Fold this protein.
Amino acid sequence: MANCSFLGIPLHLGTGRFGCEMGPSAFRAAGLGDALSELGHTVADLGLIEPDPVKPVKHANPVLKALPEIVAWTSAIARRVLAIPQGTMPILLGGDHSMTAGVLAGLSQRAAEAGRPFFLLWLDAHSDCHTLVSSTSGNLHGAPVAYATGEASFTGIYPPLSTPVDPRNICMMGIRSVDPSEKQFIAESGITVHDMRSIDENGVAAPLDAFLQRVKAAGGDLHVSLDVDFLDPGIAPGVGTTVPGGATFREAHLIMEMLHDSGLVTSLDLAELNPFLDDRGRTALLLVDLVASLMGRRVLDRPTRSYA
């Protein structure tokens, strides 16, 4: 059984629209704590992160939105995540995906201090590999991976990285919306990507197992970052960046069940839930079920859901 620490990150500024800041409350209301407690895990709720004081920050790219604020959030998140004791499983409740810049900065340093390599499983419709130069939308939820791997445009603007994430230790699954500059970044960095065509052709089990074997052989820490838009919008409507053709209910649960069976996952973040766009809590409840599968709930233990 695991000692889990919830930490809410009420952040929406990376998306350019309101709603994701309500995500932490929605996860709590959907019963995430009870679901994990019923599985025998110990759950500590650490409340909500607040950003650091905002300082003047500028970049030559004029479209970037809320850059000083996102930088302030990133430094606060990294520090709070790093402070979670070793042997405790951080579960970060978002909040838009810009939060994961700070999450990865803190967790990669945490792993390094424990003498373990750090690995990342990225479950998302998007690669979020934009740099501060390449972003055309200005929405910084599209940039956390580029920052966490040490891309140069963030230097002197975002908080300095103690331990950049090795791109070769990143596996992305479910990708189906990638801009040309992100494709170039992926090709040059060595990130492993299994897009939805690859999943259609090969399923999720074989590519995920290959990645998990690498993590196991290295004795690494494994962080899972789950964006709601990894899932097909037909089953998870509560997200502002819907992309058709996402993971099915069973594909998502199989991934979570395999992750549990591996015993390798050391941390988790849940990003981009927008309760304002959800249907009677449907997406939040699905995410709770997925986390329960990751934490040990088996197929035969799954309760019947009613949305009436």
Summary: The chain has a mean pLDDT of 96. The longest strand covers residues 3-9. Residues 67-83 form the longest helix (17 residues). The beta strands are 3-9, 42-48, 89-94, 118-123, 170-175, 192-195, 221-227, 265-271.
